[in-house]
Amino acid sequence: VQLQASGGGTVQAGGSLRLSCAASGTIVRVDNMGWYRQAPGKQRELVAVISSGGYTNYADSVKGRFTISRDNAKNTMYLQMNSLAPEDTAVYSCYADTLSFGPLGTVVSDQNWGQGTQVTVSS
User: Burial level of 64, CB count in 10 A (0-12/13-18/19+)?
Assistant: First the structure.
């Protein structure tokens, strides 16, 4: 399974960005998905998660500003980021817990990661 993240960029404070994360491969099922971010010199932070049924949860730092969603038919997750602030500047990475077809008809459970996408918010 491969995850492709996109949508990062540079925006002024108060602006918006939408990140996408698409899963592809011999997927049986995609369960929990989420976004982490890591700023230079800081610990990695779990930003938002979404279950296959649409249950969501957010870090306190982004509640009310970020919205996570997913399209199960497309195995794609989104992160709508509004009212961005300089402290949101980080590399954002997506993950997905998946079941996929393995060798000889097996089913493999794994956590897959996309490449990071840079989000830069200027003041």
Answer: exposed
Encode pLDDT of 22-42 as tens digits: 999 999 999 999 999 999 999
C-alpha span between 43 and 93 (Å, rounded): 13
Residue 54's SS3 state is coil
Cα–Cα dist 5/63, whole Å: 22
Residues 6+ apart with CB under 8 A from 88: 37, 62, 81, 119, 121
How many Cα atoms occupy the beta-carbon half-sphere of 22 within 13 Å? 7
Only one residue has tokens 């995850």, namely: 3
Among 13, 10, 30, smallest CA distance to 22 is for 30
